[in-house]
Amino acid sequence: MKRFTNVKSGGVILTLLLLALVSGSVWGQVGTLPIKQSGGKSELPKGFSYEGLGSDYSAEPKLKFDDTGDYLVLHFDNTPQNLSYTIKWNGSGTFGVFIVEESADGTNYNELVNYTNSNNPGANKSKDEKLTLSSDTRYVRWIYNSKKTGNVGIGNIIVTEALQDDKVNIPILIPEDGTTFVDKLTVTVSCSTEGATIYYTKDGAEPTTGSDKFPTEGVTLTETTTLKAIAVKDGLDNSEVVTATYTKLEPYASLKALKESGIATEEGKPCVVELKDAVVTYADSRKAYIQDETAGLYVFGSNKLKAGTKLNGVVAAQLVLWNGLYELKVDGGEFDNVAVTNDVEIPVQEVTVAELNQNFAQYESMRVKVVDATVTSSFNDKNGEIEQNGEKIALRAADENITADVQATVDVTGYPGLYNSTKQLNVILQEDIAVKTAGKTQATLTFDSDTYSVNVGESLTVKATTNSSASVIYSSSDKTIATVDENTGEVQAGNKVGTVTITATVTENDEYTGATATCTVNVVDPSALPEAKALVAEKDGVYYAMLNTTDKSKLNASVATVLNGKVITDRSDLCGWYVDEENGTIQSISNNQYVAHGSGNTDLELQSNSFKWDCRGGMWQCEVSGSERAIGYNSSTDKFGTYLVSDDTYPKAVVMPITEGYHRNVTSGDYGTICLPYAVAAEDMAGAEFFCIAGKVMKDGEPQSIVLEQVTTLEAGVPYIFSATSDKLIAAYSGKAVAVAEEANGLIGSFEGQDVAEGMYLISAQNKVQLCGKGCKISGNRAYIDMNEVPEYSGEVGVNQRLISFEDATGISETMVEGGLADVYTLSGVEVRHQVDESEATQGLPQGIYIVNGKKVVVK
């Protein structure tokens, strides 16, 4: 294992451990100039090595740099002249730092080009570069030194040899050393020394001027051959000998022989197979299944195959082993020269689940049928399960619309395949599942949150939602700590602290299976607990709070509302931490786990054991591999990790107090209503001016407008009208909550939201009062007006008062909604959107299940 240390400008030191064997290229292999590269990782010429590159792009430049530290190294043994390559930034937004550099010894590198935000080619644009290399250079390195967003493509690399005055330059054999071929291959040669004559051998002997001259039309090979060539010119020393071996690929006699050859790699290995009566059992434009008498094989890539055809002939492609599954990787024309017989019967072999489990390799990618199986798990995210005589196997649906009810008896036709170590039967079409006996719908049951917290002696209601027609029944694991009403889910905490598990159950009935779900309730004594704090980072004027949930070895983040240096939230269970600066610990208030550095440089995780941080300079730091790192926010991943203290790219997390409160996205200048269960002090509100109703103005016995009087504080449970002065209304709570919303001069509040009777009034965004027709309703923490209860106002409108007029229409027949905003959460309780239009709440979100206003919504 070699260690290369790259010393860069600005004193940043990056240490790379370069593996002795790297994806098909061997450290210690040296290339000879000139060198030309095109294609992906599996096609790199001798002299190239790499670490961490992603899957190849489909078009040049194909080499993908997709993470910090990804690099490509070229090592050669003769004097270079020029370096050329193509670079492309794939993505949008800001990028990081990508460097191209040269070295004489492979240890100390000097920069050739440093691509940063200011001089990169631009989003999704390519740039051709040509550089002059130093005469003593023997290494060139491309490295993604610091990624922000976007990936980098590199390709079309050419390094030319320096022209020599006293010696003929080395000849170039085309194609390069290591090329494989199927039938025959023509090799040509060139030399940059004008007038040179090239001699060659095919028998392994060293070429001399007595050897055959290289023909201008090239040398045609029909078998594996090693060519050696030398360039000669009068008055100059002979060139060095160039050697290249060209391997003829002999076709494997069957699909089974190909799969058992052992040549498959994750990147793909060139192969040739002779198809003998191979039947295409399924095909679309991007994938297919073929099988002969010996085995089946999955075909991946662009193809023109057609199900129900028989193939005979030789095919050259790439054999891939991807997550345990053998694949024949193609890109369009591999089957063009095989003989095709149309309209043949598509074979299917009946097997048992036991036979599949015991002889899985034998049946992999063959079309098989399992009969009289019982569905034990319906499809969830395209994954299901069947059982037959006590043996089970996973099902994998090609389409999310494929369904199978639990307990149904079915015949399943599919293609066995491995995903990592999981054996599964791949189902392509709904018709491949023949239902013989109907089953039941799989019941779903999910709590709104995994963890809740309640003070001793107090109560809260937990709720589990289900698709079943059966009632949800709740139970507590320890009634001495907390009891739960079996029908409503109301949890009553006792007088001692502790943790209980609340179990929700729906029983099986004629339509649905049974299901259970659990959540944890922590009963705490607030007087014995430290104050919960938030860890917050600010990026471009937006605050992000660190959550107590993890994803991809990082902690999730959520946009935070900050007022007067305090985080305003009603979800401290998600973003609340017990912060002990003296002992250096950060502990979740919900699950009692500690924030800790993970195994990777930037990883952040939760663990049950305490982890000591060093709180210095307002940052939470730890030492990793000799470098000081601190908890910070990464805007490209929207997560918290650990980053170099000196790197300002990632704003560092600071501690802020948490105050329970309320916030709503609004439009400046618009009116609305609000009713909160807590009082709000004058200094703890922002984004709006607040008013109570002073009275109504009458004309000819009809109300014409209402008079509003400004207030500076909000009372708990009292409804108000507000006029927005920014895009967000913020209120921090004070005191204790009230249970019931009140009425004030005809303004009737609601904490939960409700239907509003015909004849009542709502405040419109156009700053008018509108009469409700049928179907009116308001969302939570809002209010409506009962004009009969509003007192008549006869005085002049004062300085601190406003007049809001009625809508000209006497009534509105269609449904009206005051509010209609919603928060969106994942099933694990992570808030992904806050106070968005409920009708558009899930637009643009990835596939999955979300909670919108307490209801489960599926995004497909």
UniProtKB/TrEMBL annotation:
Segments forming domain BIG2: 441-516
InterPro entries: Big_2, GH29D-like_dom, Invasin/intimin_cell_adhesion
SUPFAM superfamilies: Invasin/intimin cell-adhesion fragments
Organism: Paraprevotella clara
Full protein name: Bacterial Ig-like domain (Group 2)
Top-level taxonomic group: Bacteria
SMART domains to which the protein is assigned, alphabetical: BID_2 (SM00635)
Pfam families xref list: Big_2, CHB_HEX_C_1
Gene3D superfamilies for this protein: 2.60.40.1080
